[in-house]
Amino acid sequence: MVWNLSEDLREKLEDFGDASVVNGARPVDMFDAIIAQAAELREACARDADPVDDADTDAIGEPPNDWPAAEPDKPQTKGA
């Protein structure tokens, strides 16, 4: 079976729509939100097609791997 983008997207949107209405959203509000988010995603993709390539570990606040267990070749000390 060949993957079909349109069919897969429609199925996911239908599931999202069902869940939205069950949780109290009006269908018109749900469609407006989908359209607005799609426009924002399109604009973001036009600015930077792959933002992951631009990620800086300092900018996202990830700690360095300098904790003892990150270096398995070094002997571990017990207690602090």
User: Which oligomeric form is depicted?
Assistant: single chain
Count up the helices: 2
Task: Please give the largest β-sheet.
Answer: none
End-to-end distance: 57 Å
Please indicate the percent range of residues in DSSP E strands (runs of 2 or more). under 5%
Q: What are the segments in which pLDDT stays under 50 over at least 5 consecutive residues?
A: none
**Helicity range:** 40-55%
Give me the secondary-structure category.
Answer: mainly alpha
**What coarse outline follows from CA principal-axis ratios?**
elongated
Global mean pLDDT: 80
How many DSSP-defined strands? 0
**Element pattern in H and E:** HH
Radius of gyration over alpha carbons? 22 Å
Q: If you had to describe this structure to a student in words, what would you say it looks like?
A:
The chain has 80 residues and is an all-alpha fold. The chain has a domain at 20-54. The chain contains 2 helices and no strands. It has helices at 5-22, 27-47. The longest helix is centred in the middle third of the chain and has 21 residues, at 27-47. The model has no long low-confidence stretch (mean pLDDT 80).
List the helices and strands and how they pair.
Layout: H1 5-22, H2 27-47
Brief digest:
With 80 residues, this protein is mainly alpha-helical. It has two helices and no strands. Helices cover 49% and strands 0% of the residues.
